[in-house]
């Protein structure tokens, strides 16, 4: 087993001796500077590959303070103001953090701003409002009594949002605020490239330029109490300028409204069904950003250095799954590993030589404080990521933050030593091979390939109450023995369903980009195409409110395929009949494991165990299924539908034969071992592949099996912090009992 390599360690000023010690312990072959610090000469002299974080559009206040009209800008939506007479005053900055944002009074507000009557949606004519810059107020005349009014206004971003977050988190006190700048302005663009070229000359010791990231921050806005107010990891709100808006109009032939950015207060969340202006702006922005990223990469290469992109911070405009990303000339992408989903988001990126994961916890004082045990998070993070790494390996790993904090926690230091050794061992045993995928699964939504492994996300790896029931689909799939791709509704309309797809999974809340919204009513061909595919033998799994749109007396437009629809109080006078719940089914077979005898395991479809495997204790009880936030008033469309779970007059799990194909409905799928097992069995059943299920599966849902054909081996991983036992059926039908330590991994030859 390799004890060094594939590991990047962070370091900081005046910490050379301890850096050398931990680098040896963790097997680091590369070192990076922590944010805001420089590497000591002694660290550089250790002979490791040197990464240096580079910020193209911040940390040069000497320039931007002389050009404050060239900071990035954002359209902000004011609070609603109630008209109690025919005039109303709207405060601009109420609810926003004035140290971060400042209204742009330089560009003509009557050209670039918008006042909207939110009671009607009508735009208020410019002659009916004036701006009081000193007071930060817009005065509106001719208002309708008791109507609400808002102002969408341009604001300068005067404190870099990520540096601000780090500043507030770490308590940096009087440290100078770093002001961001926008390269859309020619003078600032020239400054950025001139500065970078000089930096390349001044830093010959650097091997890898770690761009953190490029030009435009994802939407990250704070309120006056320094709390996060708007966080959208995909948000393009912080990318506007009068010059860019004018150029967009020339290129696309129409002018964007401020409303096209604030979007009724959603700021174009990735959950909103994307509209043409939003898609066009993404394309316009990407074209500009990519041209300049390509130039930075070329300059790096000319200086003999690699160009690495951090998938975070100012990553907007560099969508890695958008066509053409591979043409940028980047050598690598590094990103934060929050769970299996974010691991796959990084690992699957095409067009780069290698990918690297930054594991958690980040070495910040919010985790590394006296009395806390950061090793708990480290192990949890590793277990989540490992499932995905086995399916799609990242080439390198590392950590971020301030090494001096981590060094104070010996238990954490030991944990990282073990994790890094295991990471290298996986690579040694598999030579970077991805584990075998038995089925081809497609995730269907509005965004498709462009947002691969990014569906159902608000902030990076942070599902919330409204999203966890869907995000769990991705987390389950990230470590599952299937091949995953992402397709869009447009793909299906234009090309149909690819011949090699075994199962399509779709769903989400109504009127979102993930369930599709009005596309189901506007494009009846979509439902017809999917019906034909399933009827001919395909498989469709719908989660939550799949194909939801009230149209022609149905809410789920694919209710006939799924066997389930939702009552929206339109047909309460029409009775619905629930057949009895079917207790025994392939999908729910694991629920019956763990009753105290091996027979339950054998009855689930496995054959004779290996000698010496034991015969008394059945291993791996599937815990209760968590269906997440309930979808109220779902019902079977007929009595031929097979109900597997129902609760309080609503369907939680149902299956339906549809022609030669099958449909499955699940009300929600938060991530858990039990839910991942449920989804896996549903995929195999829906695609008529039950016969392929048993080989190299684990009787214990807390453990998973990954098979590496080229390497001639397979492994079993324990995804918990407790010791586990499991039975694994091999390819020849024999069954082996495997004991696993907490967080353990066991390797076997095929």
UniProtKB/TrEMBL annotation:
Positions of the Lacto-N-biose phosphorylase central domain: 440-690
Gene3D superfamilies: 3.40.50.880, Glycosidases, Golgi alpha-mannosidase II, Immunoglobulins
Coiled-coil regions listed: none
Pfam families: Lact_bio_phlase (PF09508), LBP_C (PF17386), LBP_M (PF17385)
GO molecular function (one): 1,4-alpha-oligoglucan phosphorylase activity
Domain Lacto-N-biose phosphorylase C-terminal: from-to ranges: 696-747
Domain Lacto-N-biose phosphorylase-like N-terminal TIM barrel: 5-435
Transmembrane domains' residue ranges: none
InterPro entries according to UniProt: Class_I_gatase-like, Glyco_hydro_b, Ig-like_fold, Lact_bio_phlase-like_N, Lacto-N-biose_phosphorylase, LBP_C, LBP_M
EC class (word): transferase
Alphabetized UniProt keyword annotations: Glycosyltransferase, Transferase
Signal peptide: none
Enzyme Commission number(s): 2.4.1.211
Superkingdom of origin organism: Bacteria
A Gene Ontology biological process term: carbohydrate metabolic process
NCBIfam families, sorted: 1,3-beta-galactosyl-N-acetylhexosamine phosphorylase
The protein's name in its UniProt record: 1,3-beta-galactosyl-N-acetylhexosamine phosphorylase
Gene it is expressed from: lnbp2
């Amino acid at each position: 087993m390799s004890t060094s390599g594939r590991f990047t360690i962070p370091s900081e000023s005046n910490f050379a001796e301890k850096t050398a010690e931990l680098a040896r312990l963790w097997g680091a072959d590369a070192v990076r500077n922590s944010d805001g610090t420089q590497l000591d000469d002694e660290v550089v002299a250790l002979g490791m590959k040197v990464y240096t974080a580079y910020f193209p559009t911040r940390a040069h206040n000497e320039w931007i303070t002389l050009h404050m009209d060239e900071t990035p800008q954002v359209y902000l939506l004011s609070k609603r103001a109630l008209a109690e007479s025919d005039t109303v005053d709207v405060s601009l900055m109420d609810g926003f953090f004035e140290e971060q944002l400042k209204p742009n009074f330089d560009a003509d507000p009557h050209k670039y701003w918008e006042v909207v009557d939110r009671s009607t949606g009508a735009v208020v004519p410019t002659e009916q409002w004036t701006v009081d810059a000193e007071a930060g107020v817009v005065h509106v005349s001719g208002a309708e009594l008791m109507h609400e009014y808002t102002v969408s206004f341009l604001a300068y971003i005067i404190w870099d949002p990520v540096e601000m977050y780090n500043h507030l988190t770490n308590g940096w006190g009087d440290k100078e605020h770093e002001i961001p700048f926008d390269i859309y302005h020619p003078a600032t663009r020239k400054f950025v490239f001139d500065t970078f070229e000089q930096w390349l000359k001044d830093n010959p010791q650097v091997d890898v330029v770690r761009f953190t990231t490029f030009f435009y921050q994802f939407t990250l806005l704070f309120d006056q109490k320094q709390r996060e107010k708007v966080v959208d990891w995909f948000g393009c709100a912080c990318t506007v300028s009068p010059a860019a808006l004018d150029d967009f109009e020339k290129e696309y032939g129409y002018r964007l409204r401020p409303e096209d950015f604030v979007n009724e207060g959603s700021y174009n969340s990735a959950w909103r069904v994307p509209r043409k202006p939003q898609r066009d702006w993404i394309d316009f922005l990407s074209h500009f950003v990519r041209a300049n990223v390509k130039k930075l990469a070329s300059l790096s290469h000319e200086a003999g250095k690699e160009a690495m992109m951090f998938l975070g911070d100012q990553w907007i405009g560099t969508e890695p799954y958008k066509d053409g990303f591979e043409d940028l000339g980047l050598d690598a992408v590094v990103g934060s590993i929050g769970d299996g989903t974010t691991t796959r988001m990084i690992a699957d990126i095409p067009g780069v030589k290698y990918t690297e994961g930054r594991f958690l916890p980040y070495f910040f004082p919010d985790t590394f404080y006296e009395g806390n045990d950061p090793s708990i998070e480290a192990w949890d993070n590793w277990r989540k990521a490992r499932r995905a790494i086995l399916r799609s390996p990242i080439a390198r790993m590392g950590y971020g933050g301030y090494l001096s904090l981590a060094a104070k926690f010996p238990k954490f230091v030991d944990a990282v030593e073990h994790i890094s050794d295991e990471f290298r061992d996986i690579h040694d045993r598999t030579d970077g091979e991805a584990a075998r995928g038995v089925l081809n699964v497609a995730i269907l939504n509005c965004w498709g390939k462009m947002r691969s492994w990014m569906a159902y996300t608000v902030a990076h790896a942070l599902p919330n109450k409204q999203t966890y029931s869907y995000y769990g689909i991705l987390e389950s799939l990230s470590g599952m023995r299937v091949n995953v791709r992402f397709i869009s509704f447009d793909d299906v309309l234009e090309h149909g369903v690819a011949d090699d797809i075994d199962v399509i999974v779709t769903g989400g809340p109504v009127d979102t980009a993930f369930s599709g919204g009005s596309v189901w009513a506007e494009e009846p061909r979509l439902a017809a195409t999917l019906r034909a595919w399933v009827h001919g033998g395909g498989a469709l799994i719908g989660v939550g409110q799949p194909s939801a749109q009230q149209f022609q007396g149905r809410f789920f437009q694919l209710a006939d395929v799924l066997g389930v629809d939702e009552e929206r109080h339109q047909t309460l006078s029409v009775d619905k009949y629930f057949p009895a719940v079917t207790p025994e089914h392939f999908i729910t077979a694991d629920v019956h494991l763990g009753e105290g005898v091996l027979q339950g395991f054998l009855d689930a479809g496995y054959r004779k165990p290996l000698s010496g495997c034991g015969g008394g204790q059945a291993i791996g009880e599937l815990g209760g299924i968590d269906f997440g936030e309930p979808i109220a008033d779902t019902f079977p469309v007929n009595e031929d539908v097979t109900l597997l779970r129902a609760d309080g007059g609503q369907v939680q799990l149902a299956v339906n034969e549809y022609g030669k194909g099958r449909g499955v409905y699940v009300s929600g799928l938060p991530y858990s071992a039990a839910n991942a097992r449920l989804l896996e069995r549903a995929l195999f059943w829906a695609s008529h592949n039950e016969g392929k299920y048993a080989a190299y599966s684990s009787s214990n849902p807390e453990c998973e099996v990954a098979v590496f054909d080229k390497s001639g081996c397979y492994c079993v991983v324990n995804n918990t912090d407790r010791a586990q036992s499991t039975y694994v059926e091999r390819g020849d039908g024999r069954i082996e009992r495997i004991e696993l330590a907490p967080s353990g991994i066991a390797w076997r030859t095929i």
